[in-house]
Amino acid sequence: MVKENLAFVEQKISDACKRVGRNRDEVTLIAVSKTKPVEMIQEAIEYGTVDFGENKVQEIVDKTQVIQDKVNWHMIGHLQRNKVKYIIDKVCLIHSVDSLRLAQQIEQEAAKKNIICPILIEVNVAKEETKYGVTVEETLPLITEIAKLPHVSIKGLMTIAPYVENSEENRIYFRKLHQLNIDIKSKNIDNVNMDILSMGMTGDYEVAIEEGATLVRVGTGIFGERNYNI
Ligand SMILES: *Cc1c(COP(=O)(O)O)cnc(C)c1O
């Protein structure tokens, strides 16, 4: 089933790119494998998927021990400062940085390992109370501070749009994040590169691509519904 779903999502991504005149290679699909077993991830790897998203530190640690294939792990969930050290050298990108304190912790751990850690700033564009992320207004000041950290490299922005029945309702939020990305890019801040826009999930990735997403994070659409009770 995973391979059929991947083929379906792949087609939807190509169609969305075509609609707005973008090249398919401008968009990377991240298969969000949180709560899903290693066997399903292996199936996706066989299909050709190389980017996987997880939201729990322990799960990343466990899965990277078992899966030896060269794949890219993305940390897409809320990250506690005391857990940064467990994943810093296992993930290719941390999507969920929303405070200077977290960035400083990443700086400390990255310096210890002599690496530079790529990150995105999570923006709560829709101002939902239940979600993490900084406001649109807080984003530039935060980036200006984080840019001073030598072992942290800002690559762009991420958002989790509201859960909606009609994905069109999220278009304004994707557009707003894209515009914010452009505004910040135009400031040409040292050590900041705004090439990544991580937005769009199973319910709304096509709209997100139409609005400029470069990374889409699709879980349910690839691996099926998640069961949190097991
Ligand atoms: C779970 C999750 C996703 C994937 O959600 P689906 O609706 O299953 O596609 C994407 N992004 C983040 C941050 C997530 O936590």
TrEMBL record:
Keywords attached to this entry: Pyridoxal phosphate
Domain of life: Bacteria
Lineage: Bacteria, Bacillati, Bacillota, Clostridia, Lachnospirales
Entries under PANTHER family matching the protein: PROLINE SYNTHETASE CO-TRANSCRIBED BACTERIAL HOMOLOG PROTEIN (PTHR10146), PYRIDOXAL PHOSPHATE HOMEOSTASIS PROTEIN (PTHR10146:SF14)
Residue intervals passing through the bilayer: none
InterPro entries membership: Ala_racemase_N, PLP-binding_barrel, PyrdxlP_homeostasis
Residue numbers carrying N6-(pyridoxal phosphate)lysine: K34
Gene3D superfamilies xrefs: Alanine racemase
Family statement drawn from the similarity comment of this UniProt entry: Belongs to the pyridoxal phosphate-binding protein YggS/PROSC family.
Cofactor(s) annotated in UniProt: pyridoxal 5'-phosphate
Domain Alanine racemase N-terminal: from-to ranges: 26-226
Function: Pyridoxal 5'-phosphate (PLP)-binding protein, which is involved in PLP homeostasis.
Organism: Velocimicrobium porci
Protein name per its UniProtKB record: Pyridoxal phosphate homeostasis protein
GO molecular function terms attached to this record: pyridoxal phosphate binding
